[in-house]
Amino acid sequence: MSSISGTPELWGIIIALGIGSFGLRFAFLGLVGDRAMPEWVLRHLRYTAVAVIPALVAPLVVWPTATGGTPDPTRLAAAAATFAIGYLTKNVFAAMGTGAAVLIAFNTLF
């Protein structure tokens, strides 16, 4: 693997990503920021965090690199407990606390 730090390709990628990031933000804040959004857009935006958080966590549960890519029963149990408590109580903090407690307890026991 070659290092490209300091090369024009790296700076081109950084600049392109910066322009793209600015463009996405400007599309919402600069062009639409002073107008009310339709109700259907607001309804979909409410679910963004609910979709992003599991998408970030799921690969760590299903395909963890610490175990060589095989599912870890401890992580699966913690994810199942988190999901169950979150579904039953509708409380994010209770779900996260339960998942952390299960993960710590199973890591200690096994």
Characterise the protein shown here.
By secondary structure, the protein is mostly helical. The protein folds into two domains: 1-35; 49-109, no CATH class. It contains five helices and no strands. Helix 4 packs antiparallel against helix 5 (92-109). The longest helix has 24 residues, at 8-31.
Brief overview:
This protein is mainly alpha-helical and 110 residues long.
Query: Strand pairing plus helix content: what structural class?
Result: mainly alpha
Oligomer: single chain
Binned strand content: under 5%
Largest sheet: none
Number of strands: 0
Supply database-style keywords.
2 domains, 110 residues, 5 helices
Helix/strand layout:
Elements: H1 8-31, H2 39-45, H3 48-62, H4 73-89, H5 92-109
Helix pairs in contact: 4-5
